[in-house]
């Protein structure tokens, strides 16, 4: 990591102040583990054309849920597809972005309704009726 232990001197104190409970679930573990992370579900600017010289900025924003974590507290490395429960919502890891100082930003997709039945609003075959969910 270099001469400075960022995990101990920077990331751990930030996590102690701003962190909140994160429930981590990986297929490699077979159990859920309680960890800590700094959750953010705010808006960010999106530049669909990239930053081109001479072009004015396009004012488009989107919501981008992510959690900042200390990689040293994970029993196995977090990976795409693993689940995190934060603030009573389930999130699936979309991408892990290590920061080269012992931490990572984990981009998330909402997963709390992944296994719900599809609401197609049509009658099913053989006398079954699909349930419409609103």
What do these coordinates show?
This protein is mainly beta. The chain is 10% helix and 37% strand. The protein has one helix and eight strands, in the order H-E-E-E-E-E-E-E-E. The chain has one helix spanning 6-18, and strands at residues 20-25, 32-40, 43-46, 60-63, 66-70, 83-86, 89-98, 103-110. The strands form two sheets. The protein has a six-stranded antiparallel beta barrel. It is globular, with a radius of gyration of 20 Å. Mean pLDDT is 82; it is low at 122-134.
Poorly predicted runs: 122-134
The averaged pLDDT comes out at 82
What is the β-strand count?
8
* Termini Cα gap: 51 Å
Relative strand content: 35-45%
Strand order of the largest sheet: 1-2-5-8-7-6
> What is the succession of H and E elements?
HEEEEEEEE
Rg, Cα atoms, Å: 20 Å
Describe the largest sheet: 6 strands, antiparallel, barrel
Amount of helix: under 10%
Which structural class is indicated by helix and strand composition? mainly beta
> Given the structure, what is the number of helices?
1
Shape: globular
Layout of helices and strands, plus pairs?
Layout: H1 6-18, E1 20-25, E2 32-40, E3 43-46, E4 60-63, E5 66-70, E6 83-86, E7 89-98, E8 103-110
Antiparallel strand pairs: 1-2, 1-6, 2-5, 3-4, 5-8, 6-7, 7-8
Describe the structure concisely.
This protein is mainly β and 134 residues long. Helix content is 10%, strand content 37%.
Which labels suit this protein?
134 residues; mainly beta; 6-stranded antiparallel barrel; two-stranded antiparallel sheet; 1 helix; 8 strands; 37% strand
């Amino acid at each position: 990591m270099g001469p400075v232990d960022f995990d101990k001197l920077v990331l751990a104190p930030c996590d102690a102040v701003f962190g909140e409970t994160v429930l981590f679930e990986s297929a490699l573990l077979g159990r859920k583990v309680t960890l800590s992370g700094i959750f953010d579900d705010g808006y960010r600017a999106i530049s669909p054309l990239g930053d081109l010289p001479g072009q004015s900025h396009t004012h488009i924003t989107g919501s981008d849920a992510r959690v900042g974590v200390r990689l040293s507290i994970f029993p196995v490395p977090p990976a795409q597809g693993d689940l995190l429960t934060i603030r009573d919502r389930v999130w699936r890891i979309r991408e892990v972005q290590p920061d080269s100082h012992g931490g990572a930003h984990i981009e998330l997709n909402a997963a709390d309704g992944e296994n719900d039945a599809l609401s197609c609003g049509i009658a099913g075959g053989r006398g079954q009726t699909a349930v419409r969910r609103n």
